[in-house]
Amino acid sequence: MKINTPIFNDQQKRFALILLSLFHIFIITASNYFVQIPFEINLKLTALGFADDFSFHSTWGTLTFPFIFLATDLTVRVFGAKEARWIIFIVMIPALIVSYIVSVVFSNGQYQGLGALSEFNMFVFRIAFASFCFRTIIRCVSIQPLTSIKNLVDSTKQFHDIWFSCRYLYVLWRSIL
Fold it and tell me: Using CA atoms, how far apart are residues 77 and 79, in angstroms rounded to an integer?
């Protein structure tokens, strides 16, 4: 017989709600800002005898994106799948606003001043809105399969830890490539 006792009391859940909400907003804002800043890696492989050099173009946002999965997983673990869907959806609205403000005020990696908010920046809005749509749909859709997998492997703690560690490494690796 399995007895389900709550892990967190109401006060701890309120505190976790505040921390996780701020974490979601921070990660989304950072990802949306950093996606504007490109970087390139060039390796001169011809000096080693290869036919071509290696060149990799990306943005700094690819490095912060995997933390969104961490925030989602923590929210599901603390509040359950049903509540996590609502929390994530509701947090996306302030994240969209904060992301837009930060990206406009610090456009092109430089402080533009608060006066930059007087003009509507379509480029930044498109990034923030596309991020909002993508993350809202993907998070709400992905919560159920992840919860099912977690419940399936929960009986063996060691396999559970290995599975989720591999999943995070896989998501991190795929987001960088």
Answer: 6
